[in-house]
Write a structure and sequence with these properties.
The complex is a heterodimer of chains A (280) and B (159).
Chain A (H helix, E strand, L loop, with lengths): L1 H16 L4 E3 L7 E3 H24 L7 H20 L7 H17 L7 H8 L13 H34 L7 H45 L11 H43 L3
Chain B lengths: L4 H132 L9 H13 L1
Classes of the chains: A mainly alpha (280), B mainly alpha (159).
Chain lengths: 280, 159
C-alpha cells in the first residue's frame, strides 16, 4: 500500500477521512459542533419518522401492504424482545426500544455506503470534511447512552418510589441482618452502585462507537489499497481486484455487525430499564 | 479530494453486496411478507365466511321457527275443529240414545198399560162372572157365555 501513494499521502487520506466537519461555537475544544454527525443523525431520524409514521397512519386492519408487513415484523420483533425481558407494565419501553433499534440501524447503515462517495461529492460541493456515520462519533453514542442512563434513573424512581430508590443505594447488593451491619455495609453498597451506574452508559456508548469506528476504519484501510493508483503501474491491476474482494467481504460482514450492534444497544436498554424497575 | 479508481472499486464492491442481498436475502424476506399477507387475507376471508354462514344459519333458524309456528298453529286449529266435531258427534249420539231410551220407555209404558188394562178387564170379567154366578147361585159356563162376558168386559172397560 505504501508504494502506491507514500506514507504521507495515506496518512493524509486517513486523517482526512476521520476529520469531522467542525464548527466551533465557543472557547476550548469542548465547544465544537460536529455538523456532519448532527446532520446525518437528524436525517436518519427524519427518514425513520417519515416511513414509520406514514405506515402507522395508513395502518389497516385488513390485508396490509408489503411495507406495512415489514414494519409490523420489526415492531413485533421488538415487542417480543421487550415482553420477554420486561415483565412489568410500561408504555415507554417498547416504543423506546423500537426507536433505538431503528435509528441505530439506520445510522449504522450509512457505514455501508462506499466510504469515499459522499465525502467526495461533498468536497465537490465545497464541504472540506465529512463523516457520514453518526454512530462512529463518540458524541452521538454517548448522547444516546446518557439519555438511556437518565431514563433508567427516572424509571427506577417512578417504579419504586424515591424512598426505596435511595434506600437500595445503601442496602443492596450486600444485605445485613442488623442495623450495625447495615451501616457498615452502606459505603460499600453505595460505591458499588455508583460504579455499576457509571459503567452502563460508558459501556453502551463505547461498544457501539468502537464497532462502528473500527468498521469505518477498515473500510478506509481497504480503500487505501488503490490509493494514488495509476494505469501505468502494474500493481494497480493486482490491488484493484484485491480491494474489490476485501471490500465485498467486509461490506457483507458489516451487515451483521450493524444489525447486531443496533440489537445489542436496544436489548441492553431494555435489560437496564427492567432491572431499574425491579426490587432488589 | 479528487475522485480516484478507489471510488469505482468501492462502488462495485457495494453493489456486489447489494446484489448478493437482493439475490439471496431479499427473496426470503419477501416470501415471509407475502406468506404473512396471504395468511392475513385467508384469516379475514375465513372470518367473513364464518359471519356469512352464521347469518345464513340465523336465517334458516328463523325460517324453521316460522314453519314450526305455522305447523303448531295448524295442529291447534285441527285439534280445535276435531274437538268441536267430537263434541257434536257425542251430542248427536247422546240425543239419539236418549230418544231411543224415551221411545223404549214409552213403548214399555204403553205395553204395561195395555197389559194392565187387559188384566183389569180379565179381572172385571172374572168378577162379573163371579158376581153373576153368585147372583144366579150356580156356575156359569164361561165359554157358553163368552159373548155376553166379553160385552160386559167391554162395557166395564168403557165405563
Amino acid at each position: 500500500m505504501a508504494e502506491h501513494g507514500g506514507p504521507a499521502t495515506m496518512t493524509d487520506y486517513i486523517k482526512h477521512h476521520l476529520h469531522f466537519l467542525e464548527k466551533p461555537v465557543g472557547e476550548g475544544s469542548f465547544w465544537v459542533l460536529h455538523l456532519d454527525s448532527i446532520f446525518f443523525k437528524l436525517l436518519c431520524a427524519a427518514v425513520f419518522l417519515f416511513l414509520f409514521l406514514r405506515v402507522a397512519r395508513r395502518a389497516t386492519t385488513g390485508v396490509p401492504g408489503k411495507f406495512q408487513c415489514f414494519i409490523e415484523m420489526i415492531v413485533e420483533f421488538v415487542d417480543t424482545s421487550v415482553k420477554e425481558t420486561f415483565h412489568g407494565k410500561s408504555k415507554l419501553i417498547a416504543p423506546l426500544a423500537l426507536t433505538i433499534f431503528c435509528l441505530t440501524f439506520l445510522m449504522n447503515f450509512l457505514d455501508m455506503i462506499p466510504v469515499d462517495w459522499v465525502p467526495t461529492a461533498a468536497a465537490a460541493a465545497g464541504v472540506p470534511y465529512l463523516r457520514i456515520v453518526p454512530t462512529a462519533d463518540l458524541n452521538t453514542t454517548l448522547a444516546m447512552s446518557l439519555t438511556v442512563f437518565l431514563l433508567i434513573q427516572v424509571f427506577g424512581i417512578k417504579h419504586k418510589g424515591i424512598g426505596t430508590f435511595v434506600g437500595e443505594m445503601f442496602t443492596a447488593p450486600f444485605h445485613a441482618p442488623n442495623l450495625i451491619g447495615k451501616i457498615l455495609l452502606a459505603p460499600a453498597n453505595l460505591l458499588l452502585r455508583l460504579i455499576e451506574e457509571a459503567v452502563r452508559p460508558v459501556s453502551l456508548a463505547l461498544r457501539l462507537f468502537g464497532n462502528m469506528y473500527a468498521g469505518e476504519l477498515i473500510f478506509i484501510l481497504i480503500a487505501c489499497m488503490t490509493l494514488g493508483a495509476s494505469l501505468s503501474s502494474g500493481l494497480t491491476y493486482v490491488m484493484a481486484p484485491l480491494q474489490f474482494v476485501a471490500g465485498f467481504v467486509w461490506t457483507a460482514f458489516h451487515i451483521l455487525i450493524i444489525t447486531l450492534q443496533a440489537f445489542i444497544f436496544m436489548m441492553l436498554t431494555i435489560v437496564y430499564l427492567s432491572m431499574a424497575a425491579e426490587h432488589h | 479530494m479528487d475522485p480516484t479508481i478507489t471510488i469505482v472499486v468501492q462502488g462495485i464492491a457495494f453493489f456486489a453486496v447489494a446484489w448478493m442481498v437482493m439475490k439471496f436475502g431479499w427473496p426470503h424476506i419477501i416470501a415471509a411478507i407475502e406468506d404473512r399477507q396471504k395468511k392475513i387475507a385467508e384469516g379475514l376471508a375465513a372470518a367473513e365466511k364464518g359471519e356469512k354462514s352464521l347469518a345464513e344459519a340465523k336465517n334458516s333458524a328463523n325460517d324453521i321457527i316460522k314453519e314450526a309456528h305455522a305447523r303448531a298453529a295448524k295442529i291447534v286449529e285441527q285439534a280445535n275443529r276435531r274437538s268441536v266435531e267430537m263434541a257434536e258427534e257425542a251430542r248427536g249420539v247422546a240425543s239419539a240414545e236418549a230418544e231411543r231410551l224415551i221411545a223404549g220407555a214409552r213403548q214399555e209404558a204403553a205395553l204395561e198399560s195395555t197389559r194392565a188394562r187387559e188384566e183389569l178387564r180379565r179381572d172385571a170379567a172374572n168378577l162379573a162372572v163371579f158376581g153373576a154366578s153368585k147372583l144366579l147361585g150356580r156356575e156359569i159356563d164361561a165359554k157358553a157365555h163368552a159373548d155376553l162376558l166379553d160385552k160386559l168386559a167391554l162395557e166395564i172397560e168403557r165405563g
